[in-house]
């Protein structure tokens, strides 16, 4: 397979599928409201402002030199029984693979989870991992160098997430926060607290929406098709370890969103997602497709996906496999060590779905078995609820977001 072939495969897959570390507010952005289309393809700062909420932007530097962007929606005053509540609890949200802050905002001002949290008095922070459109800088490498893209979600867990958590703690003065992660966002939370268990103490609760850990029984066509090639050590997988997975070219993204809006029936547009998330997309909110195509995917590495493919092949949830020789040098053992999930002591609330093509029920139950502090399990009632529906599903506010806020409110105002 030539590098050109690899590039075409990567594009096809995902069509389907400064002083830093200080609490500095960046408000230098241009805001336009000429049309809904401009709002769809602009960034999180503009979208949040357009939706009528205050917004801040902060830059954070990781220990290995990546510069990440955090978006903050400062909390509003909240009243309970005519008394202004002084608590301003912090919530950090992390999106899934090849996504960014923007995906949390697609449901609009009335139904997006960050806005609902803000209206309930929470101090909302939207994180971004290395490689997406808000985190494409490194103090030692530029994004045209293979070294920049040689990371998986393991590095996001042990470098990106700690940097964001430490920054939020310093900026707000709050030592503990709630966490919400979807898909890969759940992965990095679990890896962080298993690899660096001292961070458990900084979380009050964690809501994990379809967290991807064990994938040995996944029904995802991409894993079945490419897992045997990209989930094992060979010449191609080694080359791809330093390659960007998807382009963030704004003209490509605009083209995709415009064709979804104007040139294709909704079912034809959504069919691009089928090989990645499965064929039953009956619960997907089709009116959000132009927005989804304009804001996903937004950058990342091949190594992220290959790490998941390795899990599919090994049927385990473990660190990246570099081959027996390099594993010995890195891990002092021939096989990658498994993540020690028993070290994750944060109270965890899990949401999962029967029709999730990424996470089979067998794999979800395996995860539950390994976690020592599962507080609540929510199995989504709609039979056809799929992986993307956790963000863009019909009635997502009713089935998920209201329950999340109820759980947080109970903790804040009834927990002893």
Automatic annotation (TrEMBL):
Keywords: Hydrolase, Lipid degradation, Lipid metabolism, Signal. The active site is at residues 183, 356, 387. Residues 1-23 form the signal peptide. One of its GO terms (biological process) is lipid catabolic process. It comes from the Eukaryota. InterPro entries: AB_hydrolase_fold (IPR029058), AB_hydrolase_lipase (IPR006693), Lipase_euk (IPR025483). Pfam families: Abhydro_lipase. Residues 47-108 form the Partial AB-hydrolase lipase domain. Belongs to the AB hydrolase superfamily. Lipase family. This is Lipase.
